[in-house]
Every structure is written in C-alpha cells, then in structure tokens.
Amino acid sequence: MTPSLLTGFGISLGLIVAIGAQNAWVLNKSMRREYPWVVAAICASIDATLITLGVYSIESLQQRLPTLVPVMTWLGIALLCWLGGQAFRRAWQGSSGLLTSQQRGAHSGWQIAGQAAAISLLNPHVYLDTVVLIGSVGVQQANTTAFVIGASSASLLWFFSLAGFGRFLGPKLQSPRAWRIFDTLIGIIMLLVAFSLAPTATG
After folding, report:
1. Domain limits, the chain
2. What gap in Å lies between CA 127 and CA 134, rounded to an integer?
C-alpha cells in the first residue's frame, strides 16, 4: 500500500505545485481572507473527484481496449519528461515569482465558491493532469485505492496549506528564488516518476 500511496502523493503534488492561475488565485483569496477554507475544500474536492474518475475509468476502458493503457502510459511518460524539462527551465531562468494582490474584495461565500469551481473546471490542464496523466499512472499501481488516496491527499494538503498560510506564504512565493527551488523539486519528481513508469510501458 505504501509505495502506491507515496507515488500518488508525489506525482499529484508535483503537478499541483506550479506557478499557475489557480494557485495564484487561491493564494490571493487566502491573503485577502475571502473564505479561504471554502476555496480550499472546493479545489481539493474537484481534484479528488477527477483523480478517482481518471484512475477507475481508465481501468474500465483497459478491459475493452487492451492497448489503451500502454499508449497512455507512454504519453504520460512523454508529458512527465516535458513537464520536468519545463520546471528545470523555469528554475534555470528564475525570472518570475507568484503575483498576488492584497486588495480586499467584497464577495459573498457563494460567489467565491462559484469562482473556485470555475477556475478549477474551466482549466483544460486540470483534466489532462488528473484524468489522463494521474489516471494512467494510477492504473499501473499494485493498489489503486492507495494511489487515489495518496494523490487526493496531496491536493488536500496543498490547497489547505495555501488557505492556512497564505499571509505567510504570499510574500515568500513572490520571490523568484523561492520558485526556483520549487521548480527544481518539481522537475526531479516528474522525471523520477517518468523513469519509474518505463518498465510497465514496455512490459
């Protein structure tokens, strides 16, 4: 159970922890104290739902299309290598940090909840990451349930960390140096997972 859980946790965290619109927005709401726990719960719940659908729907499709998973695995390896390369490139350049705004807004809890759902579901990369990439990795695991728990836990940990420590993290994450460190770690995680998938794709 532990290897599958750790693999799920590692790949999910590596995909989530990156400079992007969703993370910038979540951190922004945390810094402005605009229902940060509601935002974190919605983002993490959507991730968990899509991860679960991805892992178990791909497993079902595999029974009908036996070649699907090997093809998707190779695509996943290629994507992981590309993501790792991009992360290392950002770390090398180190030219941008996380931009946030500390201006206080005036929105209701329902409005913030709707915005959180929209910024999660209207991002095409979320489906590629959760359903396709994480799903393809998950179906290769000895314990898919542990993998789903690990991947979902990473999302939960990340978003609630942003919600809880936004005021502390905000100024830190605006530093290009901090994101160079983050991106280096992301690149390492992506490549390690890609290499771990190669034997299953050829086997």
Report:
1. 2-98+109-202
2. 10
